[in-house]
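To whoever picks this up:

The parser on our side crashed when reading a file containing two proteins. I've narrowed it down to the boundary between the first structure block and the second sequence. Both blocks are reproduced below exactly, byte for byte. First block:
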Amino acid sequence: MLTHILVKDLAIVSSLELDCASGMTALTGETGAGKSIMIDALGLALGDKADAAMIRAGCERAEIVAGFDLAAVPGARAWLAAQDLDEDGDCLVRRLIVRDGRSRAYVNGRPATGTQLRDLGDLLVDIHGQHAHQSLLRANAQRDLLDAYGGHAVLAGSVAVAFREYRALDQQLGALESARQERAERLDLLRFQVEELSALGLSAAEIETLDLEQRRLSHLGRLQETAARVLDMLSDAEPAISDQLRSAGSDLADLAAIDPALVEPRDLLETAAIHAGEAAASLRHYLDGLEVDPAALEAVETRIAQLHDLARKFRVLPVELPEALTARQAELETLEQADLRLGDLRASRDTALNAFLDQARALGEARAAAAERLNRTVTEAMQQLGMAGGRFAVEIEALPPERAGTGGLERIAFLVSANPGQPLQPLAKVASGGELSRISLGIQVATAECGSVPTLVFDEVDVGIGGGIAEIVGRLLRRLGDARQVLCVTHLPQVAAQAHQQLRVRKETLDGQTYTRIETLDPDARVDEIARMLGGTKITARTRDHACEMLGWAG
């Protein structure tokens, strides 16, 4: 529920901060005092369109901060968590309206968009009257309210899940069936490509080895010439390198007996002579096995040419050809199984459709029964609220299966006739704001226990009524306040007297500036305010007694 609201420099409000209580709260005050500014401020905090003209004269910006306790609003907590805007079970909304520039909004200290504010507002506050945030005017909200009233919200949720499961399977099946011709053409192409790539018969490692073999064979003459020349230098030339190394080592061996410092170079020369001999032997073995084979080179180059041709054709590197084969084999296997999958998918789709239809038909029957009860309850409330002969009806339009959706097999609409002889028409088309507010009040009272929005605001629901009907409106609002938080802007003492608490809105002039103030009334001040509403500016002992009597009736 709404716990507090702060307003700065909005219209004629300079600075105002108010703590809000549960139950029914009446906002009263003389005409023009600014009672509706609180409603406007709350609407702005929850995403209403901002206008720089609303900023107090002489100020550069207006600010509204609204705090909400979400302990009993799991839907709002879940929404905030999904938007990454949650904060320890509470919610603080801040809206800044600047004279030069765009307004800014924050939820729990994090920037938020106007759409996010409106979505959050739909979960937290319903403003009834000629204002926004009236969820009862939306078709989906009417359907959800009927389901909650009938106690079959769980069944409605199951129907929505069943429809989504059916629709997902149906879309998969449609995609497969529409692609059947394309699939046949793709199968032919894949079979040809797999056969072509399989004929290659090489792995990525073998492709790399083939490339090395081609380079070796193409440089065979150079390899042979250079290896022979080095072998000659090592062992066959006069003098050979190995012979020179042995001779040098022998010379140092004689001198090492004189100077031990020559032992290490002597040993290194002897080792070098050994390595030179081993290198010569290895080269001789290499040359013995090195044969010029033009046919082998031609075969390798032909193989490599095939690799590069295929690589260009498939637009991959030669070494990636085995991966291309694997990918096409997997796709080929999937497509070859498609017909079998089509049959299985079609059966699953039909099963899901039947499950949805069974649940949706049960939901339709439950809705019809709940609608009859709601029709009677709200129609009776309308008679009490000054709309004698008025009627309320829930219209349930059956939909064919092909037009079904997550809401089931029906389209739900709330219809009303505010006066005798007038036809029923959609709630959204009711012309009078006062009538709409009172009809909404009747619906909210009838469904108070199942509503999910914690705070209801009724802006001058008493327009055009008085006397006994006004007292009935007050009683209904108080009854509604037992289950939800209710804020009510009213001019009628019969309504205000029923409130659990009362706020007085006053307009003051100070140093040539106009200010709006709101104060919470204690019992004595409340008697005075009710007396003012009864008797105007002149309060007499009789009006005070009458005010005390009205407050006593409310309990």
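<<boundary where parser fails>>
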Amino acid sequence: MSCYTKQLRRLGRGVSLAVLALAAPGVAAAQSGAAPIAEWQLDTVIQPSPFRGVHGLAVAPDGSVLGGSVVGQQIIAIDPKTGASRVIVDRPAGQADDIVIGPDGRIVWTAFLSGEVRATPGSALTGGGAPIQVLATGLPGINSLDFDDGGRLYATRVFLGDALYEIDPTGATPAKQLLEGMGGLNGFEIQGRTLRGPLWFKGDLAEVNLDAPAVTVIASGFKVPAAANLEADGHLLALDTVTGEVKRVDAATGTATVLTTLNPALDNLAVAPDGTIYVSNMAEGVIYAIDPKTGNHKPINTGGLAVPGGLVAVTTPGGGTVLHLADLFAYRTIDGDSGKVADVARAYASNLENPMNANADMGRILLSSWFAGGVQMFDPATGAELGHVNGLAAPMDALMADDGHLLVLTAGGTIQRVALDGGAAPADQAPVVEHLAMPTRMIWSGPERRSVYVVETGAGRIVEVPVDGQALRAVAGGLDAPEGLAMLPDGRLVTVETTTGRVLALDPATATGELISTGLKGRVGLMGTAGMPPAYIPTGIAVDDKGRVFIAGDNDGSLTRLTPR
């Protein structure tokens, strides 16, 4: 046990927040596996996993499978025989929505959020910090890419654009647009001078003659086709992200047969030289290997949670605890004792819109997404959707107001009242509060529902905001990038410092606090890419009626439980 840990254990309850802040250097030096504070037991309910959503795939010359994570901003190599993983391109450069190995051995990928095509030498596969070159910029939503047989490089934009480009492999000249408005030309492959790929928004497979660019539909009948690749015999493999089907398609006739069916939220595929088919599932963070003859499949890496964000605990009629998790590509429930995970809905296979935060109020689960600009409401017992409000300005969290409106916390630093039908609030109705510094979470201060506690990640503090518009009150300050907020049965607030991994229990009335764990460093605090909200994925904290604290690891995909002894 380190001397720092011994010192922290002696702090105990009733220590001023100023003293806790002074202890920060020692805590920061503690390892992520350090023993918890004596009165609290730390358990890992769900183990970490490599990917924070897995998208682009490529088979490297050494046989490893490269998987790209847009949100996790990494390219990770998986040994398909052992499942061992290693980071090839780390944050923030990794951000790969699609990956291809170039004719010269370079690893080339699309940085979806940054709008760039990037490349690194093949030596990155063996380590050594290979340099990264930007081949194209100014292409938000850049999605899929491939080289033709002559070494010319092509890429498409999807979701944040809809176009086909030729990319200069040297990066010397800007991208050249060839087509626009195809219908979402997603994961494609080129053979000769013919490009074949799926039209995400039209449910078709299409081909493009790159010498005279135009779109020709070659197969139909898909719900949402996500990717298409060729097998050695010329057949086309295609994924349907909604149904989970992997289909083999005759490109000449359009006839399709189902090779196998996986869970929904499939995103990309790659075919190895031996014919093995690899498919990525973004909601599971898993890459599957499929036998091309039998359709038998198995995961090649450990999965679990995808991008765990907001978390809320609900007590069941039998006295158990069910956690409701916003997992970006899924809305999930987790048994608080066993850690058993169940899907309520998955993005793309349902109306779910990339949930990032979760709250519970008035018998509803409220899922917020700053990326999608919406709040969805669900019945916690049945999973049925109860309402959906779109067109919001970067909502970070939401609660139900007593007057029937939503209270929406925004990344811009406001709490707004929003009608449940999505209509605008009265023109003369000012926000409840403005000028908060990167707020990420709010909870009711008590059953009277007269004010909310808000954690301001940007200001390093927690404030109390009256819903009648009176001046806010500072509750606690001097915190290091706090995210997540929940209330213990004794009325204290719990939050986690995402940079230090310290978990604090704070008395909002006396401004005193208790350090209850130093074991979350490296598990929370996933950093965003440039242009994204600094908090990126809100760290989820939930407290059940037994006083147990659950923390979602947005950085490593884990779920941690702190139990008072």
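After patching the parser it read the second block fine. Helices lie at 3-11, 17-22, 24-29. Residues 161 and 292 are 34 Å apart (CA to CA).
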